[in-house]
Amino acid sequence: MSHVYGILSTRATVIEIDPVYKLPLDIAYDFAYTDARDLMDAKNTKEQLLLSNARVSTLLTIETGDIFWQGVIALDRTQYRHGQQKNIDRQLWLAMFNVGLPCTVLTEQGVIMHGALTPFSEAGTEGVIWTVREYGKTGYDALHCLENGDSIAIYSAVRTGKVDWAGTVQFSSPHTNAIRLDGSQGFHTHIIRNALHMDSLDWLALSHQKRPCIIKI
Q1: pLDDT for 138-169, tens place per residue?
Q2: Which of 44, 117, 137, 170 could form a disulfide with 196 if both were Cys (CB 3.0 to 4.6 A apart)?
Q3: Based on the structure, what is the number of domains in the chain?
């Protein structure tokens, strides 16, 4: 039995197209993972479908792993309002956020958090804000905007940490038509397969968090 270190992810499929603008109106997600060896390799297909009967452990914290980059946040805001990290290639910095690499942050106030690098933007931000989406939290409460003086360790693979779920995953067969899941506050999404080992919305949340995972196949 082999061990794969990676992050949970989703594979998206367009299920509805705007007839006028020819743009995606809605998408459906299938449950997947990304092998840590492929995370920063642009030539490889990233998401691999997560299949039934795999033994999976999801991690809430990071204890040990393969460090890809570490340093102190020093954002130069002379050319970009949200700053560019000094002493690192801009494209590499952006790529780490687009992938959602796992990281540990120690703030100047002494707070430690574990999460995924996230290039956050919404109406009014006027560009990407460099943030960490903390594992185990949701919404804006999960977001920490990186500030000058924060210490950060960014990992290409997480090998140990606090396990918050472990077991054998089971999924339904793929559905011909995507299934709509209704969440709280009017939220809804579509999936290709149901999770049978836990509530599908809960597993989807772990996948969207890009949780570090260890998969035994």
Answers
A1: 889 999 999 999 999 999 999 999 999 999 99
A2: 170
A3: 2
* pLDDT above 70 for 101: yes
Domain range for 191: 3-60+162-216
Model pTM score = 0.90
> DSSP letters of 169-187?
--BPPPPSSPEEEE-GGG-
Residues 127 and 94 in one domain: yes
Please check whether residue 44 is in contact with residue 57, taking contact to mean a CB–CB distance below 8 angstroms.
Answer: no
